[in-house]
Amino acid sequence: MGEKKYFVYILTNLHNTTLYTGITNNIFRRVQQHKQGEGGQFSQKYKMRKLVYYEVHCDVRTAIAREKEIKGGSRIKKVELIATLNPDWLDLTLEAGK
Question: What is this structure's pTM?
Answer without folding.
Answer: 0.93
